[in-house]
Amino acid sequence: MTGGHRAGPGGGPGGGSGVRGGVGSGPAAPDARPAGPADGAGAGRPPAPPTGWAVLREALRPRVSRTQVVIGVLCALLGFAAVAQVRQAGTASLGSLRQDDLVRLLDETTTRSDELASEVARLAAERDELLSDEGSRQAAEEAARRSAETQGILTGRLPAVGPGVVVTVTDPDGTVEPETLLNLLEELRNAGAEVLQLGDVRVVASSAFTGSPGAVVLDGVTLRPPYRWLVIGDPDTISTALEIPGGALAAVRRDGGDGTVSRRDEVEVTALATPVPPVFATPVPAGGG
């Protein structure tokens, strides 16, 4: 017999696909390794280490997983839903108002913006005067005097005069609740009232209503109807705010009373309040945080 090996599948007798020279016909040599460059200068040499730029590019290459994509989509949907809800709420709250109410709100906002701009300009000018060397002492004294007057008016220690309104609340059956008068006070303050007097009592930040219908007590003084308010502030803004449907005077009428607003070019508030010294609060030392 002339040979012990057959041709591989698909090969013919004596074809090139047969086993030659015994390669693959027995166990691999112990020092066998993957085929590489058989010869040349680079044979057997380890691969060159990556450069610093290659390592940096690999570190900065974005790696986006499916979880990160899902989280990003959910965050985008949540933000869109929040913005849509806020816009819908703002549109609904303003859409329920009448045109007159919207005009009033716009006027109040514009007036308040102008007042704040004027206050900023005044304070900036006052700061410049205090920082200047010339006349700094006189400017400081003038600023202290104005601050004392302002604090005296706000705390009720000084009388005040200015444009405003006179609000008269009648209660023939003695059914107007103290809470209704408190609501009226809050509406006056929201409309920009600066100085208030109810009856013979100066109304300040710490004032409180107690008592019962027909015998309302303000800061320990019992008041009897009719309740007459003296208010210093913008007459147009205050009168418009009180007459809003569902507002303060509407609440008075629901209790069985009635109210009128009279605009005045000059309102004089003469009642004074005795400030109560603080029990727990003390001034912050100069230079303290």
Identify the overall geometry: extended
Strand content of the residues, in percent? Answer: 15-25%
Pairing-aware structural class of the strands and helices? alpha+beta
Strand order, sheet with most strands? 3-2-7-1-8
Largest sheet: 5 strands, antiparallel
Given as residue ranges, the uncertain stretches (5+ residues, pLDDT < 50) are 1-43
Mean residue pLDDT: 78
Q: Could you give the order of the helices and strands?
A: HHHHEHEEEEEEHHE
How many strand units? 8
What is the percent of helical residues? 40-55%
The name of the CATH topology of the domain at 161-269 is Alpha-Beta Plaits
CATH class of the domain at 161-269: Alpha Beta
Q: What is the distance, rounded to the nearest whole angstrom, between the alpha carbons of the first and last residues? A: 110 Å
Number of helices: 7
Q: Can you tell me the CATH architecture of the domain at 161-269?
A: 2-Layer Sandwich
